[in-house]
């Protein structure tokens, strides 16, 4: 007779998707969340569910992993791109390039929507429950988010009269090895710059990015509120440890190493963890089949752009502006191939996660991680800081 109890640590997208699918299969699911509600790590900022890495639309993907759309999920087909020279690039797409979602404590957020779905299926959520000792019985899934900051974002959320809009900026002078972005939806907006290096200079890069954005986009900014975010990517630790605990989302290192569009990986890993329990399949095997090849390709892409710099950004934008369907170009770029496999061999030797590198995990720094992440994850980061 199977043990019907499953404990899930963390009420993020990965943990909630796992809970939703397990509850549908009749499991007794308990989520342990150290915050008082879902979405506590976020500030109402907009993010994107990318819609280019698979042939099917992301709405089809959500349906396939058992997720209903009860949250803000708006399609964006036209995005304005600006390269290092701030020249606007127009691209054509056969379908929405991404779906905008909101993160945080708003009832329209992805986090609250997934929470409502889990509760409706009978999932029990224990809030303010910082699980110190794992239960001795039942299966355990851990999805407590990133353990370190391999990339950070600094930005603002604000009110505006500007119509719905999206823009991306590629320039190492404002977003080292990454990008800056503007997302406007229903008179609210998010603007941020992302950094893969030079974390202590995040304020300088944010100001440069903001000035660049306002030089090409006429937008009013009212009631701005600052926010910070961070992501974690690594490949070495297995998603299942010797104790049989399943690790999902960024806690397992599942993240897009190129642009940081990791929401799909997080939710997919939660789904795979659930079906591995229900069907008795190998969770590492499922991850190796459905997630790992994409992660390895994204790391090869990260190495490529890290070395090409602004020249690579210009090259990519020019190519995307000349094709009939930019979605198809991006999908091919994200798919595993022999050249990408060869690049990955180089990239895996070059890339070092800050989970192993103590840089920017100390008390003297004022970056996003040290202000926000270290406090939230002190118990997991303590061994790295000391």
Question: Can you describe what's shown?
Answer:
This protein is an alpha/beta fold and 386 residues long. It has a domain at 5-70 and 98-145 and 233-290: FAD/NAD(P)-binding domain. It has 11 helices and 15 strands. The strands form 3 sheets. It has a 7-stranded mixed beta sheet with strand order 6-5-11-12-13-10-14. A 5-stranded parallel beta sheet has the order 8-2-1-9-15, covered by helices on one side. Strand 12 (180-185) and strand 13 form a beta hairpin. Helix 1 packs parallel to helix 5 (263-279) and helix 7 runs antiparallel to helix 8 (326-334). The longest helix has 31 residues, at 292-322. It starts with a strand and ends with a helix. Residues 357-363 and 375-386 have low confidence and may be disordered.
């Amino acid at each position: 007779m199977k043990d019907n109890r499953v404990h899930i640590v963390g009420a993020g997208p990965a943990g909630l998707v796992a809970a939703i699918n397990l509850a549908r299969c009749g499991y007794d699911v308990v989520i342990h969340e150290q915050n008082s509600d879902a979405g506590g790590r976020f500030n109402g900022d907009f993010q994107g569910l990318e819609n280019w890495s698979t042939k099917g639309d992301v709405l089809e993907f959500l349906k396939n992993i058992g997720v209903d759309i009860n949250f803000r999920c708006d399609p964006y087909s036209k995005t304005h791109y600006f390269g290092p020279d701030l020249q606007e690039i127009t691209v054509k797409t056969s379908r929405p390039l991404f779906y905008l979602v909101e993160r945080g404590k708003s009832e329209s957020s992805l986090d609250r929507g997934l929470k409502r779905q889990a509760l409706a299926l009978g999932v029990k959520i224990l809030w303010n429950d910082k699980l110190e000792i794992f239960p001795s019985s039942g299966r355990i899934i851990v999805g407590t988010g990133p353990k370190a900051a391999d990339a950070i974002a600094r930005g603002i959320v604000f009110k505006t009269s500007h119509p719905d809009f999206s823009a991306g900026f590629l320039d190492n002078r404002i977003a080292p090895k990454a990008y800056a972005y503007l997302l406007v939806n229903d008179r609210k907006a998010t603007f941020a710059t992302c950094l893969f290096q030079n974390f202590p200079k995040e304020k300088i890069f944010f100001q440069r990015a903001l000035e660049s954005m306002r030089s090409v986009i006429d937008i009013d900014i009212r009631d701005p509120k600052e926010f910070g975010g961070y992501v974690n990517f690594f490949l070495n630790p297995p998603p299942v440890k010797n104790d049989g605990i399943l690790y999902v989302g960024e806690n397992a290192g599942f993240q897009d190493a190129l642009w940081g569009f990791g929401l799909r990986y997080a939710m997919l890993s939660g789904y795979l963890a659930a079906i591995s329990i229900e069907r008795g399949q190998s969770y590492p095997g499922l991850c190796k089949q459905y997630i790992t090849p994409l992660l390895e390709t994204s790391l090869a892409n990260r190495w490529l752009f890290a070395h090409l710099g602004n020249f690579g950004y210009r090259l990519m934008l020019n190519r995307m502006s000349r094709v009939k369907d930019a979605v198809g170009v991006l999908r091919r770029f994200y798919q595993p191939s022999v050249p990408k496999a060869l690049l990955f061999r180089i990239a895996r030797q070059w890339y070092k996660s800050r989970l192993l590198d103590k840089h920017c995990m100390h008390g003297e720094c004022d970056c996003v991680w040290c202000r926000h992440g270290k406090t939230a994850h002190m118990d997991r980061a303590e061994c790295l800081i000391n």
